[in-house]
Amino acid sequence: MTARCSCPGWGDPCKHTAALYHQVARILDHDPSVPFLLRGHFESELMADLHRRNAAHTTRRLAGQRPR
Q: Rounded CA gap, 12 and 35, in Å?
């Protein structure tokens, strides 16, 4: 991804883009599920899916199958 800004700054990234990167990092540090929420996935759905996948993986492992 390439960031673009219309400011006359010469930095790469410019101060505006750097500030945006900093804020995004701060938000992700606070709540890593934000990208999923922005795409319409809710934490409860994600956790339920992870539990299902973990259970399936454990079942295959106990049955002697290779994980997918």
A: 25
State how far the alpha carbon of 36 is from the alpha carbons of 26, 45, 61, 68, in Å. Answer: 16, 10, 29, 23
- The pLDDT tens digits of the residues spanning 29-42 come to 998 888 888 888 78
Q: Which residues contact residue 33 at a Cβ distance below 8 angstroms, ignoring those fewer than 6 apart?
A: 43, 46
Structure-token match 């759905």, residue found: 45
In the chain, alpha helices (H): 15-30, 34-38, 43-62
